[in-house]
Amino acid sequence: MPFAIEEHVLRTDRHTTGYLACGAEQAPLLMFVHGWPELSWSWRHQLPVFAALGFRCIAPDMRGYGRSSAYDTHDAYALQHSACDMLGLLDALGAEKAVWIGHDWGAPVVWGIASHYPDRCHAVANLCVPYFAKGFGPGGILSLIDRDLYPVDRFPAGQWEYQLFYRENFARAQAVFEADVQATVKALFRKGSEKAIGKPSRTAMVRVEGGWFGGADKAPDVPMDTDVLTEADCATYTESLTRNGFFGPNSWYMNHEANAAWSAQAVHGGRLTMPVLFLHGAFDTTCDTMHSRLAEPMRADCADLTEHVVQSGHWMAQEQPVAVNAALARWLATKLPHIWAA
Fold it and tell me: What gap in Å lies between CA 273 and CA 302, rounded to an integer?
């Protein structure tokens, strides 16, 4: 019998976290941390698979998303707060440690837990967004931009131009995404393509064009990419993002200075000694770790790093779940046999 995905809610005086759970309650913990603008449901292809392999799989809604608490100030979405949310959830689950797995903004949360609280980690794995001991944000990664592809006079922040747009035009970005949430979801969640390699990412064009979607007032009504989402998946994202709005999700981009200051407090100078897995998206043109220097700092700051390339765009866990699951399982079996056996 396949394991069912269960819905749970942890409520404390500090924060409420909605989360999905799958697998035997006493099994070793895998914690799956989603990014922008997603949900715990983004890990739907991973939870039952790893539950069947003998793990207790947990996927929380991050703050500002789904059934978790949302806040009305930008500073509430600094990474330090989300890391504390996750450690509170780990405590409530009665566990000392977990294997942490992140994607997109979930990756900096996982990297932050690993660098500040290594004693709460058996190991960490991240999809698409590599590790930066100095913190993930435009200020720390500008020197890694491919300037042949992103000339500084046109793209001063390279593919990270969109992150600066939030700071300059936050209300407009929010309004455009919320104008037609279903269209936004369909426009954002699209598979990668080898044809996009060597061309500027669409995220680089956001400031040049005066906003997302070519500067339009709402997302275009494009056909849903069924290689990433089903109709039911699209409806799940649409309902949640309509209910909560984009203030919280977009506010994650508004804390670069605070996140950098928190990164400076990491133990051991931010060097990670536990097993680390990084999955490169071959066709992820924003988090381009294949054709730029973006992954170089991670290689210097991780003592036990395994790298694997997935033939995927950015939404890797949903676009290529079999390849992602195989890479995770292989790494767990190789690096953490004692955890799996437990």
Answer: 6
Query: What would the two tokens of residue 273 be?
Result: 């000694």
In tens digits, the chain (342 residues) has pLDDT values of 578 999 999 999 999 999 999 999 999 999 999 999 999 999 999 999 999 999 999 999 999 999 999 999 999 999 999 999 999 999 999 999 999 999 999 999 999 999 999 999 999 999 999 999 988 877 778 889 999 999 999 999 999 999 999 999 999 999 999 999 999 999 999 999 999 999 999 999 999 999 999 999 999 999 999 999 999 999 999 999 999 999 999 999 999 999 999 999 999 999 999 999 999 999 999 999 999 999 999 999 999 999 999 999 999 999 999 999 999 999 999 999 999 865
* CB 315, CB 286: distance < 8 Å: no
| Domain limits, the chain | 6-341
Q: Which CATH architecture is the domain 6-341 placed in?
A: 3-Layer(aba) Sandwich (3.40)
Question: Alpha-carbon distance 60 to 28, whole Å?
Answer: 17
